[in-house]
User: Fold Sesquiterpene synthase 31-like from Coffea arabica.
Amino acid sequence: MASTQSSLHSNSLQETVRPLAAFPENIWADRIAPFTLDKEEHEMYEREIEMLKAEVASMLLPTGKTMTERFDFIDKIERLGVSHHFDIEIENQLQEFFNVYTNFGEYSAYDLSSAALQFRLFRQHGFNVSCGIFDQFIDAKGKFKESLCNDTRGLLSLYEASHVRTHGDEILEEALAFTTTHLTSGGPRLDSTLAKQVKYALEQPLYKGIPRYEAWHYISIYGEDESNNKLLLRLAMLDYHLLQMSYKQELCEIISWGKGLESVSKFPYARDRFVECYFWAVGTLYEPQHSLARMTFAKVAALITMIDDIYDAYGTLDELQILTDSAERWDSSGADQLSDYIRASYTTLLKFNKEVAEKLAKKQRTYAFDKYIEEVRYHVVTNFKDRVNIPIVLATNTWSTNPYFLLSFVLISGNNT
Assistant:
């Protein structure tokens, strides 16, 4: 009997072997200074923006403008990052164009730059436009005409259009190779402003860029254009600055929220990635009306990162089974069987989700929360199956790449477009 008790005592003293990982330290730490929004400055910018919006909206009207000029103006509005002020006007105009110009023979009057721009804008806005618009630029051998090689602006426009290709768009595959070759070889001979645009586009195609960063870059390029629209440029600069102020305030709130969780002491095994998660949120949900979605996305991403680290760098298989079962039920039953750290992480996530549910209930948007919970639950279960090497059917894309997970945050924001 004594021997048995001694054995039990010895086993109880043995520490649980955990798959701890050596994650890099948080590089941001104390680098981000506190920020307090200047309400008077904010309101001053808002008033000027409202006046400029009215001016730019009047410029969007079709009176006295060719189709090419209207497309060019819409493109500048979008690239400068202010299209969120004119979503309805832009969609209406594109729909009007699409309804009228369905015969691609009409495009024979347009140059390569204009045709490629119109094609790209249609595709970016979800219109099913055929590549037939480019037939006029193809020679008898099915290749792009060599006469296009000296049309740098046209090549650049076609290059950007080639990135909105879909499966089966062979002409755009050819366009990508053709434009890349000639833009690369012709770059050194260009004037400085155009050369900058070409060099940047070859490194970062517009369609594959982060919208706010692309706006920041294009504002500087557009500012160098002597023919720029001063009112539009001013609107873009003010709008960018105003949004930056909002981002700074939100980021400080996220950092403060993370410190309030006492993550270093309560979750020492997990990565502190509150700042990175907010940057991720801004990269995908950058428009001002998505503030609630940004904040929710960033917080959830940070909490899910902690849960990920339980699976990757802390929990035993027995604990992970209990955690996964609890997540599938979405309750705290069984949590008392978990270690203090794991229980703290999971209950923190449950508490946060309850707060989100209450906010959305007040907005009568509970369906958005249901979708979000479905995606989080799926992610947790997928994590467990991956850890124990259970084959996962159609689960290669987890929440980090799942468009439906992102959609749930758009729904949370209250924007239905």
